[in-house]
Amino acid sequence: MPNKHPIGILGATGMVGQRFIQLLEHHPWFEITWLAASDRSSGKPYGEAAKWRLDTPLPERIARMTVSPAEPAGAPKVIFAALDAAIAREMEPKFADAGCAVVSNSSAYRMAPNVPLVIPEINADHLHLIEEQLSRRESGGYMVTNPNCSTIGLVMALKPIEERFGIEQIFVTTMQAVSGAGYPGVPSMDILGNVIPYIGSEEEKMEAETLKLLGRLDGNHVTPLPAKITAHCNRVAVEDGHTESVSIKLGNKFGRPVTREDILAAWSEFKPLKPLHLPMAPEQPVEFAPQQDRPQPRLDRNRGRGMAVTAGRLRPCNVLDWKFTVLSHNTIRGAAGAAILNAELLRNLGKLDLEPPQDKSGSLESKKTIETVGGVIEGVLSVGGNLILS
Ligand SMILES: NC(=O)c1ccc[n+]([C@@H]2O[C@H](COP(=O)([O-])OP(=O)(O)OC[C@H]3O[C@@H](n4cnc5c(N)ncnc54)[C@H](OP(=O)(O)O)[C@@H]3O)[C@@H](O)[C@H]2O)c1
Q1: 3-state secondary structure of 311
Q2: Adjacent-strand bridge partners of 229
Q3: What's the CA gap between 150 and 309, in Å, rounded?
Q4: What is the pLDDT of residue 383?
Q5: Which residues line ligand 1 (CB under 6 A)?
Q6: Rounded to an integer, what distance in angstroms lies between the CA atom of residue 278 and that of residue 263?
Q7: Which DSSP helix (H) or strand (E) runs through 22?
């Protein structure tokens, strides 16, 4: 199809990979031309390699495509990556070095200083960080990440509040769906009729990513939002949709006490992407459900084609200032849809026209290599004044 960007999916057979295929099926700007997964799948027709888990049919054209080895040779220039973090850590830089735009879902490089962690509605300006990557200068390629699936819903609800009133403290408890653990994920014998009050590294990711996303781009790095945050993460027997109970202490930006109506107005007026007409962007990014028993995963996760987050139960908090519930679809808004929206924004900015730069004379001091970044994120990062393991 002329004028469409050819797209590749790394980790195409997994939960998030399947969502990419579903969401890109009729996309006006992007067309899937390459699918890759592990050695277990490569060489097989996709329909045979993948155990299709979604409730829309696997497109025939995709079912017939052969799964390629996960190597840059022969891959298109725009790659959606849905790999486990340990594999992504090794593989994503190889694609960026080979001149690809790698739009990643994994946590491997989210907290790296020169890799943008972006939700288009929240911090599109952080995309500037791709210019700080060595691969960008050498081959034109780069890496962009979207946050953890539980972080996205939280930050979408917090941003309009932070912008208008300021936020000093955040207390969040999640009830996360089983699809967030990939396929086959949590054994049914562990999760049916049960709650598991532990998801490895999830609380640390939520805390660090939230402050980076709400942070300020200062030249070539992000200064995290100077707020305190604590997260409790639980796995529950829900198929799709992460629900979160949130309490917040507000800052003093507003100049007068903040009312319930002020917060509702901040959410309903929050439409930063409206002028851009990005195909994946929801019309109303934060929807408010006025019923006292909403949002609920089964009833609300597909609002805005899975790209809107739903807030509800807004009420005063006796410990902090306000509390509410927020829900988001973890494999759409929280993963594949988020990455597609990032790619749409990159296309609008002309950053998917990937040609190796002509001028390679940039000074060495200004080059921050992916390798350097990899070294940094193995250690500790200072976030909001706290030392946090990444
Ligand atoms: N599920 C969610 O809600 C969600 C939300 C946000 C972010 N994420 C992140 O997105 C990433 C993917 O998650 P998922 O839930 O889709 O996982 P998943 O269902 O376990 O899928 C993993 C994919 O990676 C492929 N893979 C495994 N080893 C490989 C290798 N050595 N080389 C190339 N490909 C390999 C698998 O291929 P085979 O089928 O051949 O093994 C499969 O396609 C993870 O980093 C996850 O944390 C997930």
Answers
A1: strand
A2: 170
A3: 11
A4: 27
A5: 11-17, 37-38, 40-41, 70, 82-85, 87, 105-106, 149, 179-180, 182-183, 330-331, 334-335
A6: 26
A7: helix 15-24
Q: Using a cut of 0.85, tell me whether the model's pTM lies above it.
A: yes
Cis peptide before 69 (omega within 30 of 0): no
Q: Name the closest-CA residue to atom 41, ligand 1.
A: 38
Distances (CA, A) of 371 to 93, 296, 356: 8, 43, 20
- Identify the active-site residue in 5, 27, 242, 329: 242
Pocket test for ligand 1, best of 9, 10, 15 (most atoms within 8 A of CB): 15
Q: What is the DSSP letter of 207?
A: H
**Which of 5, 100, 149, 329 is the catalytic position?**
149
Q: Which atom of ligand 1 is nearest to the CA of 85?
A: 45
Distance CA 59, CA 166 (A): 46
Ligand 1 atom closest to residue 42's alpha carbon, by position in its atom list: 40
Q: Give me the pLDDT at residue 388, please.
A: 26
CA 327 to chain centre: 15
Helix (H, G, I), strand (E, B) or coil at 117: strand
Measured between alpha carbons, how far is residue 364 from residues 331, 361, 386 in Å? 39, 9, 31
Distance CA 158, CA 256 (A): 19
- Distances in Å between the alpha carbon of 234 and those of 60, 147, 155, 242, 261? 37, 18, 18, 10, 31
How far apart are the CA of 230 and the centre of ligand 1, in A?
Answer: 27
Ligand 1 centre to CA of 236 (Å) is 20
Q: State the Cα–Cα distance between residues 194 and 297, nearest whole angstrom.
A: 17
Q: Give the mean pLDDT per block of 10 residues along the chain (390 residues).
A: 87 96 97 98 98 96 98 97 97 98 97 98 97 96 98 98 98 97 93 97 98 96 98 97 98 96 98 97 98 98 98 98 98 97 97 73 34 29 26
